Each structure stands twice: as C-alpha cells, then as structure tokens.
What does this fold into?
Amino acid sequence: MKEIEFAPNLLTNFFNLKVREACKSCKRYGKKATCPPHIDSFDYYKNLLPQYKYGILIIEEFPIDDSNNWQWLGENSSLFILNQLWSLRQELLDKGHFPIIFGAGSCKNCKECSFPCKMPDKSAIPIEGTGLDIIGLISYLTDIKLVFPVKDKFYRIGMILWD
It folds into this structure.
C-alpha cells in the first residue's frame, strides 16, 4: 500500500464536471445514499476540498489472478481501502483533528442502502462522485498509470483530508 501526502489546494486543478457526469453510467447511480445525485453538488466539493490543509491518498494495487472472482475482488478491494481510511480517520480524530474521507467506488457496507444513510460514520463518498479527476491527480503525483479497461491488475484509491 502506498500513502501519498499532498497539499489539498492542488485539487483545484483536478475537478472536472465530466467525471461527475460519468457517474450516471454506473449501475449504482441513484441507488446509494453516498453517491450522486444524493450527495452535495460538484461546486460544493470543488470549493470545499481544496480548503483543507493536509491530504493523503491511499493507493493499493490488486492483481486479477482469476477473472471468475472479479465481483468478489471488486467489493473486497473497496472495503480494504475503506478499512484503511477508517483506521487513519480514527487516529486523526484521537489527535483532535476532523478528517473527511472519500472511498474507492461506491459504498459497500450494507447489502441494501437506506436513505438517509444509517451508518454515516462508516460510509464514504466515492472520490469520483465529487467530480475529482482521480486519474489525472494520480498521474500528476505518482508514476502510476491507471489504464482502462483493466486487464491483469487494478488500483483502488482512497483519500483523507483534514486540518
């Protein structure tokens, strides 16, 4: 797992409304309390996120060793990143900070999503749902090249911001 520290004011350069629009092609669009259209607006995130003082991206590579376990790997890789974010979030809370986390893909905590979310302390809005171009940001900050469609490996990325 890689942790990449960055200054959140950098995020200003990576918001793209097309990223948020792409959420409409997701099979979970409108079905998750933590995804568009049920979250705050593009402009809200574009203005809010760069105001934080500190940021960390958590990046994990997952090999696709068997195409038959793609669904299992997709769900569990998201949960893996969320667990890392929750752990880091708790450490920061214990130190008196107020962190905000963004996950890798849609929330997968509950079998069936409820409106409003019944576990807001354990959920995370997907990075892409904010309109943040995570592919561009990762390319700028690292030597990782995110390629689609995925073939033999994929990455899950989470983000935490705090003051």
